Amino acid sequence: MKHASEIAELKKSxxxxxxxxxxxxxxxxxxxxxxxxxxxYAGYASLAVSYWLALPILIVASGFVIRTFILFxxxxxxxxxxxxxxxxxxxTLLGVLTLVPYRQWKNxxxxxxxxxGNLDKRGDGDIWxxxxxxxxxxxxxxxxxxxxxxxxxxxxxxxxxFVFMLQYRFNAKGARRKERLNTYLTNALIVSLYAGMIWAIxxxxxxxxxxxxxxxxxxxxxxxxxxxxQFEDSYFENDPDWSYVQAAVEGSSYYKLPRVLQWITGSxxxxxxxxxxPKVPNYNLEKAHLATPPxxxxxxxxxxxxxxxxxxxxxDEENKTFVGYRKxxxxxxxxxxxxxxxxxxxxxxxx
Length: 351
Description:
The protein has helices at residues 4-13, 22-46, 51-76, 84-98, 102-115, 132-137, 140-150, 152-166, 177-201, 203-227, 244-250, 259-264, 271-276, 285-291, 303-306, and strands at 130-131, 254-255, 300-301, 314-316, 321-323, 332-335, 341-343. The protein is globular, with a radius of gyration of 22 Å. The longest helix has 26 residues, at 51-76. β6 (332-335) and β7 form a beta hairpin. By secondary structure, it is mostly helical.
């Protein structure tokens, strides 16, 4: 997409796909929550035979938690039902199943959409990203913290526990009353639900069943969010040059998944379409993509190529690409007579 006018027209082309279909939404509720409940029970029943029989069932169940989250996600954008009240009620209930408070996430995610790819407005609902220059000039403690945060074991191993068990249990500073109350309500409902299940089947069985479902769904959820914006030639600009539409189309990937995984993930792989217009419900994302040729030129990732994003660490503003730590400019080696910092030239090498 070379011309600004062509890019701007894309947003208008999404309007026909905003239409919410109540039958499709209800159908998705049935074919998502029904299998999730059945798989949860099947995993529990399998404990009597072997945990190795239960584990594959629980991993599949975690996929349906991801799909549940996509329905929750649509409620947050007001695209699952026409009624705002219906979206709010269902979103809060689905937030209990996914351990995510509805209003808290809705607000932070709206900020993510409004600032995605804007280097001057990072931090709300985003994965921590530093530029090459920022990292090179950062104090040692910050560089170590960044390396720790971006380590795949930490991000995808400890990340689900920190984000879903701890971070989402507390309100952000300055949160409004409705958001705070919704978080309290969500926490209370989670405690009530889990207490009831523990009472019914015992804490050991509950942990053996819910533990893997929670971990794998959390891991996959963070991975999807990560890979949708962390690809080599993504889009990041400072505020004066930043474009919402360009950030959506060029800064969000098309994650081309096998049909089964596309269904499980609620077509969120068409992330460029979603960022272009969040009002498009998940069941219309593929239709919008196929009907709009310019969108088909979006950065396309497959399961294999998406793994390359694990080596991307920093955004190189000069070359407009993600790079690894080996591309970092060397720190200062002395001071000029004027007091200006002298730097070594950038180190050549791969990502």
